[in-house]
Amino acid sequence: MSSFQNAAKWALPGLLVFPPSWDLKTESGDYPDKPNIVFIIADDMNWDDCGACGNPNIRTPNIDRLANEGIKFTNAFLTTSSCSPSRASLITGMYPHQTDAEKLHWAIPADKITFVEKLREAGYWTAQAGKWHMGDHIVDRFDFLASEKAFSEKLKNEEALDLPSSDGSGSHLWIPTLKHRPKNKPFFLWFAADDPHRPYYEGIIPQPHSPEDAIIPPYMPDEQEVRKDFALYYDEVSRMDDYIGQILDELERQGTLENTVVLFISDNGRPFPRDKTTMYDGGIKTPFILHWPDVVRPGTVSSSMVSAVDIAPTFLKLAGIEAGDSFVGKDFSRILTDPDKEIREYIFAQAHWHGDRRSITKQKMAQAREI
User: Fold this and answer.
1) 276, 217 in Cβ contact below 8 A?
2) What CATH number matches the domain at 36-367, 3.40.50.300, 3.30.300.20, 3.40.720.10, 3.40.50.150?
């Protein structure tokens, strides 16, 4: 029985509570009550392009499962609307102008603190697999960066590992990383897809979407070529969704699914006009779904506003770690059991690509755009 289930025994009826302590250690140094964390980041996926977030035509059964069994945030926003500045913000818990990596392809400086090394210092095994796009200065924050070469070195004294070949998704090493993690430590995995970033190719999934499946936003022309483009984009979302299903299956096989936090988001909106690189919802709003069976009630929905800068301090809170002053976001962990709790009134975002722009979203404005 999990620590949360034990705690729930003495809770008042209908009241969900956190375990009394996230800091319980065994004499061996293991952290049985600290959750494992899997952070899944799509590349260029719009906030509403999955079944759970309002698109009935795109096939995303595993993302939908995360929402059906976890909590969906309907007002979650990024700090910026292009790839590398967004990732810099995610890993440092800072706004782009604070990361010194606010423009596309700028590397995160070595002096920046990330939440990953704090997890590592607290005993977590930390690994990254898939798209990087954060520069060379912070690679040492992870215990393991997945690649064919890294696996050869890691497993040189073991039987040869038959790694799956790359399919262009950026996700083919997710499951090998999960399978070959140390079994005596809690783990944090940064799994970043290349899907659904351009370019697009036909025939990447067994049952491709058709142009008729495409839901064209009102600010784009509803023409056949546009529909074909959207269908190929849908295919990449579905390919990524299949890998997410493999993660859930592997966690279940390992017996760690119940106490593993799985958070799924996108780094920015889809690569279409008026979406990616803009300050509109199509640029900075994100799918934001958290799955944690030990704590989160299935099918929970929260309209409370959360920002990408809130992820780092929340992960640290769940691991029982003091965040420190460099992390400027707000811990949203209480929303997981109290979905009506509000932690912020405003969302701030900025873009430094194709000109400098800023945006502020107020809570009431966000509620008017709920799913």
Assistant:
1) no
2) 3.40.720.10
CA nearest 36: which of 229, 184, 144?
Answer: 184
Report the chain (371 residues): mean pLDDT per 10 consecutive residues: 36 37 34 83 98 98 98 98 97 97 96 98 97 98 96 77 92 97 97 98 98 97 98 98 98 97 98 96 97 96 98 97 97 97 96 88 66 40
How far apart (Å, rounded) are the C-alpha atoms in residues 13 and 338?
15
Q: What is the pLDDT of residue 358?
A: 95
Whole-model pTM: value is: 0.90
Q: How many CA atoms lie within 13 A of 6 on its CB side?
A: 7
Residue 93 is encoded by which pair of tokens? 């818990």
The domain segmentation of the chain, as residue ranges, is 36-367
